[in-house]
Amino acid sequence: SLSDRLQSTFKRLKGQGKLTENNISDTLREVRRAFLEADVNYKVTREFIERIKVRALGQEVLGSLTPELQIARIIGEELTQLMGEKAEKIRIAPSGPTVVMLAGLQGAGKTTVAAKLALRFRKEGRKPLLVAADVYRPAAIKQLQILGEQTETPVFSMGTEVSPVDIAAASVKEALAHGHNCVIIDTAGRLHVDETLMDELRQIKERVEPTEILLIVDAMTGQDAVNVAENFNTDLEIDGVILTKMDGDARGGAALSIRHVTQKPIKFISVGEKIEAAALEEFHPERMSSRILG
Amino acid sequence: LRVGRRIDEDLMEEIEEILIQSDVGVDTTLTLMDNVRERVKSEGLSDSSELASVLKSEILNLLGVDVPLQIKDEKPYTILVLGVNGAGKTTTIGKLASRFIADGHRVLVAAGDTFRAAAEDQLSIWCERAGAELIRGGENAEPASVVFDAIHAAKHRDADVLIVDTAGRLHTKKPLMDELSKIGRVMGRAHTGAPHEVLLVVDGTVGQNALMQAKIFNEAVPITGVVVTKLDGTAKGGIVIAVNAEIGAPVKLIGIGEKLDDLRDFAGADFVEALFA
Ligand SMILES: Nc1nc2c(ncn2[C@@H]2O[C@H](COP(=O)(O)OP(=O)(O)OP(=O)(O)O)[C@@H](O)[C@H]2O)c(=O)[nH]1
Ligand SMILES: Nc1nc2c(ncn2[C@@H]2O[C@H](COP(=O)(O)OP(=O)(O)OP(=O)(O)O)[C@@H](O)[C@H]2O)c(=O)[nH]1
Ligand SMILES: [Mg+2]
Ligand SMILES: [Mg+2]
Known about the structure:
The complex is a heterodimer. Chain A is an alpha/beta fold. Chain A has helices at 2-13, 25-37, 42-56, 67-83, 110-123, 140-150, 164-177, 195-208, 225-236, 254-262, 285-293, and strands spanning 98-104, 128-133, 155-156, 182-187, 212-218, 240-244, 266-270, 280-282. Chain A has 11 helices and 8 strands. An 8-stranded mixed sheet of chain A has the order 3-2-4-1-5-6-7-8, with helices on both faces. In chain A, 52% of the residues are buried. By secondary structure, chain B is an alpha/beta fold. In chain B, 48% of the residues lie in helices and 15% in strands. Chain B has helices at 9-21, 26-42, 48-63, 89-102, 119-130, 143-156, 174-190, 209-220, 239-247, 268-275, and strands at 77-82, 107-112, 133-135, 161-166, 197-203, 225-229, 251-255, 263-265. An 8-stranded mixed sheet of chain B has the order 3-2-4-1-5-6-7-8, with helices on both faces. Chains A and B meet through helix 2 and helix 6 of A and helix 1, helix 5 and helix 8 of B. One magnesium ion is lined by residues 89-90, 113, 119, 168 of chain B. Residues 110-111, 134, 137, 140 of chain A line the site of one magnesium ion.
């Protein structure tokens, strides 16, 4: 683990007296390697290491009798600051139904998350409505309908011949008409570089004015996470992120990259395929940090 | 990179950055950079354009020669498709079926994902589009028994190819990996040499975790080829270099979109070009 590897670099720091660029380079190299192996973006890693270096060579460590402890503390602090505060809740609309729109790349886990959110909202005493706005993927509507049945949540669908923008708009009317105080819009997976489909999301946002727009990201995403998050955020101004497939062993460095480039909170993590309450957890920044550090 | 620049540490660092940002990974990048530095020294190179060709040849060395997916006369030639959740298995099977049918083969597909909501319906639509026949199990069928029945159906109907879809699964779930091994064994018992082709489908956006996926899936059922999907995005899929080195299976196909014909043979040279595009 990184802390084991750091122990040996720290041993070399003991008795070195003043910390210099030279004698902390081993330590910085170990942290850098850990980050890159954990899929943290290259540039994000570089900036992070740079901040560690500046602080390590600065006043707070100067003259310390235990520089290695200071550096460990600095790494921990910088990581916590980057990872963000404790999980933020999903905002509730001040009036009218709370509309949550899910977006993300193909296969990220949106439809599964939609059902899990419906379950969570029901447990909180709310009355959710699931919306089948993916008219492209074969059997996408059927998939959501089956999940709706499993979670005893009604699914609003207008088939595959109506535009997702119209479906989304109609779903809010439906919610108002039938007393649903929560609307969860499942959208089709799309590339952040697909102009037409990104424009479709912008149009849904404009028509429906969602209370929350959540970017769904696969925890095993590599260096590209930064591009995806940046584009979705620029186009839609997302309110938060949900990391999926966290029940695997991907270190999840994408979380750091996404936090760095969007400054938006990671609200939940999805930890399993089953649609059950336990499979959607609140995000814990310290747990994510130690997972990334390995 | 190609413009006439001197080969210096700055250039080396820029190359390292490109490789890492392409998901090539730390170890593989270090190996590549060592090999490149060695050749720069031994060949006395000084210009960046010379460096570019050395770098590309070193990556191609690691990737090996291009190995296309070939249908052999096994009646049926059986192809098992596996990989983690959402990688693109079902969609890739639709594309493969379409390609084989265009080549004049008779194709049967087995709905081996009996777990996920609407998995069989999704596959059914793809088979319809491709012109392939789908073999589904009854309610609550076991994947292994669906596959067993599909092999018999394929023999009976004189199919040239049988493609087996499986449920997505994380390699960290031992019971699910055991289920895959069982499917492999059942196939072998139902038809000599089956599965003749075992394709690991890897999402092009995945990072270093693909290495673990490849290793564990390979232990469950020996992989004969890799398919990298979603390369129509901005991810480079550089992790396949390490995957190839780890399990010795060549990348045979790439997915470049969500339509029936969005499948291409993997070409190492094009892949390397794209890394530095
Ligand atoms: N193990 C695990 N699997 C998950 C998780 N979330 C989703 N999945 C699986 O990932 C696959 C893709 O999930 P979907 O919900 O269909 O993903 P999607 O984003 O809606 O996909 P598209 O609509 O095609 O873009 C399915 O096999 C899910 O069961 C998770 O947290 N853990
Ligand atoms: N852009 C793009 N999308 C792809 C590609 N291949 C698959 N997809 C999309 O990725 C999503 C997941 O594809 P599936 O075929 O359902 O993946 P899977 O591996 O069968 O998923 P599970 O069975 O749930 O594990 C779908 O939205 C596909 O349309 C590709 O090459 N490019
Ligand atoms: Mg979906
Ligand atoms: Mg599938």
